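Structure in, sequence out. Go:
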């Protein structure tokens, strides 16, 4: 018998004869189409990315300052209309000259039901991450049944808009279906189920999902291996096996490890470094690391963050801010919003100064649809757009950071050339 985590020849088949293999719905993109999907960076609005950056640095939004007044004057609680969203260039447009992904986690219900939500995503994002739709529970609800409808809707939306997709997540300790966690799976079956699940999900979206959070939060807060279903029953080899299965299903996808609380030179940050270095030493197809950055207005110390990014980049890893939000007590004061803006600006500045940093995403597009109030009662207002999809100070801070970086690159004094994804 092979040890779990060792490479096995050929694509793994179903774990048992009674299992139903879900056919892959591949639509492989050619080189040009894949480049367009992997960011949509050439799709700017009425201004080019550099022209928009110059307008931001000059303090003049495209279309004139009267549009800012219209955006701030929308009826309370009502989403701002498309004409009210011209007050500032979208972050996607400002990021285009830098070749860096900029985006947000999205969910299918408001994409289908709120036109302003979809417009905000198209304006702001060159990449989107399905917030829940690709996790085990929603996408594999029955042992012999996959439900791809909600994930398909997001992928199809993104493809039509020229937006890349960052898949989330293939292996996690949360949001697993009851059939997987309640003991119905025999001890010897879990390895095959994991490989089969990854082959089915990644294979279905091969050529349409540019990057995957393959393993999410494998480390506990103290830096030890989390005692998840996967670690307890399969041992630490499950990580290597998951990456190899994902690479086999789509050799072109970028494969990431994603975690929280490991942004700096902390005990968990050190443990994450050792974990990833060890996987790379085994020849595991691991391409990057995602930093979630769920924080308060206290923020993230910039120097330890920069030093942590530097040492991970030295391993050859790409770096991504994957889930950032900055929660505030609600309702937020002007001072709190200014502090939030400074935190967003600081983290993006560190990312832009590091050539290996390839993406910056928030966990949600606007305060109207955010996980924070449900998880942290009394807190909210965590995202750069408000309840009406209007820009907040954090949005302006992010825009200014991108504009400064683009202006510096144009003058040849700042950022090196980047390749995204």
């Amino acid at each position: 018998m092979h040890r779990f985590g060792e490479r096995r020849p050929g694509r793994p088949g179903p774990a048992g004869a009674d299992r139903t293999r879900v056919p892959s719905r591949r639509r492989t993109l050619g080189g040009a189409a894949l480049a367009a999907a992997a960011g949509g960076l050439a799709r700017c609005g009425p201004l080019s990315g550099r022209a928009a950056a110059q307008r931001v640095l000059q303090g003049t939004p495209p279309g004139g300052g009267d549009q800012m007044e219209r955006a701030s004057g929308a009826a309370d609680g009502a989403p701002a209309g498309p004409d009210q969203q011209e007050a500032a260039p979208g972050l996607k447009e400002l990021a285009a000259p830098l070749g860096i992904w900029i985006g947000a986690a999205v969910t299918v219900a408001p994409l289908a039901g709120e036109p302003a939500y979809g417009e905000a995503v198209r304006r702001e994002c060159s990449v989107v991450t399905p917030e829940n739709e690709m996790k085990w529970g929603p996408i594999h609800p029955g042992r012999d049944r996959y439900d791809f409808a909600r994930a398909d809707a997001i992928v199809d939306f993104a493809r039509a808009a020229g937006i890349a997709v960052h898949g989330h997540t293939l292996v996690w300790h949360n949001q697993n279906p009851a059939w997987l966690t309640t003991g119905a799976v025999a001890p010897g079956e879990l390895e095959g189920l994991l490989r089969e699940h990854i082959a089915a999900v990644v294979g279905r979206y091969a050529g349409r999902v540019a990057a995957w959070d393959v393993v999410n939060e494998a480390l506990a807060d103290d830096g030890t291996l989390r005692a998840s279903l996967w670690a307890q029953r399969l041992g630490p080899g499950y990580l290597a096996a998951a990456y190899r299965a994902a690479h086999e299903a789509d050799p072109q996808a970028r494969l990431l490890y994603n975690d929280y609380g490991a942004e700096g030179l902390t005990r968990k940050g050190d443990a994450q470094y050792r974990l990833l270095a060890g996987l790379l030493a085994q020849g595991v197809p691991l391409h990057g690391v995602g930093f979630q950055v769920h924080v308060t207005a206290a923020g993230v110390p910039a120097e330890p963050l920069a030093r942590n990014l530097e040492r991970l980049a030295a391993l050859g890893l790409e770096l991504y801010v994957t889930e950032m939000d900055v929660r505030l007590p609600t309702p937020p004061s002007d001072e709190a919003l200014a502090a939030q803006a400074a935190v967003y600006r600081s983290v993006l500045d560190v990312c832009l100064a590091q050539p290996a940093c390839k993406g910056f995403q928030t966990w949600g597009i606007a305060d109207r649809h955010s996980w924070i109030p449900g998880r942290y009662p009394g807190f909210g207002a965590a995202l750069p757009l408000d309840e009406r999809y209007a820009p907040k100070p954090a949005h302006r801070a992010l825009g200014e950071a991108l504009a400064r970086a683009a202006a510096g690159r144009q003058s040849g004094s700042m950022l090196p050339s980047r390749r995204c994804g």
